[in-house]
Amino acid sequence: MTPALPEGIDAPDDGSLPPGAGTGAAARSFGVYLHVPFCTVRCGYCDFNTYTASELGGGGSQHAYAVTALSEIHLAADVLDRAGIPARPVSTVFVGGGTPTLLAVRDLVRMLDGVRDTWGLEDGAEVTTEANPDSVTPASLAELAAGGFTRVSFGMQSAVPHVLATLERTHDPRRIPDVVRWAQDAGLDVSLDLIYGTPGESLDDWRTSVETAVATGVDHVSAYALVVEPGTKMAAQVRRGQVTLPDEDDQAEKYELADDLLTAAGLDWYEVSNWARTRDGRTAACRHNLAYWRGHDWWGVGPGAHSYVASDEPGARGVRWWNVKHPSRYAARLAQGLSPAAGREILDDASAELETVMLGARLREGLVLSALSPRARTAVATHVAEGLVDGRAALDGRLVLTRRGRLLADSVVRDLTD
């Protein structure tokens, strides 16, 4: 089961943006997200907009996907041009899914070439693809690097076989050091994604996973608490009592362990769930995700993909839209010359300010206190006293979470935005 689309207003068939969209765009970066909605199997915890071959029915062929995605890239250029938004070279490209590396490398490169030919890439642009450890070879990684990719993010999740089995991940954890080495040998930056809080995962299991990730020498690690979404297979297993989710104390202990181990290995947190190493003054932080959290512009290509264009216009501070979900319907709309957008939301001042706080508070750089309402600025002192907000940073005019604050980030944000 894939997640429902957000509620919103209808999006126009030609994709036109509302008046004022993109005002101030020259001061913001522009990124492109390419969604590849294919997986060999659906993991029991996953609620992403992904499809196995048996779920695609009569359309949505993987073989034709690159051509379909290029159609949306061409439409995007037209929509932005008609909105009067100046063309900007793309600073980051992120190919996610699904499992993007189920596509032939030539198709991934073809989509990247479409982005490059349409807008150009900034010098030193970050170009990432997600990958499963069992979906790459030394040759395919070298081909990705030769085609312009600079970074690969592997879905490691765990190094412990019984944890991977509960998550229904199919790769052999012994393969992780190999794929990291192959990618590094190809000249790619490497990130590993981990999940903690899987039913049946002990603290020692989690320690093994983090230590295995550190031992590979990667410069970036993401660690996310497992969230079991309604409608997933795992949610049904929990409801029937077949598996038991860990409590909040277990998840907090695992987060703290990860932070200790990663920090000791030279990877510093830069977002609540992300750690990166700095070498020779260059951080390995994911620039694409930082652009999301900082409120910059991006176009999401693919079924179910979301896009966002900010605006400095008072009262209409940006527009977010999302595409139809199913690959067949997505392809059909583009073939008819229509935008694949299913709906959109125009942000007012209050919504934009809420998002600034929600996203900025999660970053190590924090956010300026002036971005908060007068009531929220008063509440910061209470959070400093409770050990949730860094007092020294607050005196310097910024809200930065302590480690305890990171554990309770959602609660802090709710208090600052209610």
From TrEMBL:
Stored Pfam families: Radical_SAM
Source species, domain of life: Bacteria
Domain (Radical SAM core) ranges: 24-268
Functional note: Probably acts as a heme chaperone, transferring heme to an unknown acceptor. Binds one molecule of heme per monomer, possibly covalently. Binds 1 [4Fe-4S] cluster. The cluster is coordinated with 3 cysteines and an exchangeable S-adenosyl-L-methionine.
PANTHER family reported for this sequence: COPROPORPHYRINIGEN III OXIDASE (PTHR13932), RADICAL S-ADENOSYL METHIONINE DOMAIN-CONTAINING PROTEIN 1, MITOCHONDRIAL (PTHR13932:SF5)
NCBIfam families from the UniProt entry: hemN_rel
Homology family: Belongs to the anaerobic coproporphyrinogen-III oxidase family. HemW subfamily.
Protein name in the entry: Heme chaperone HemW
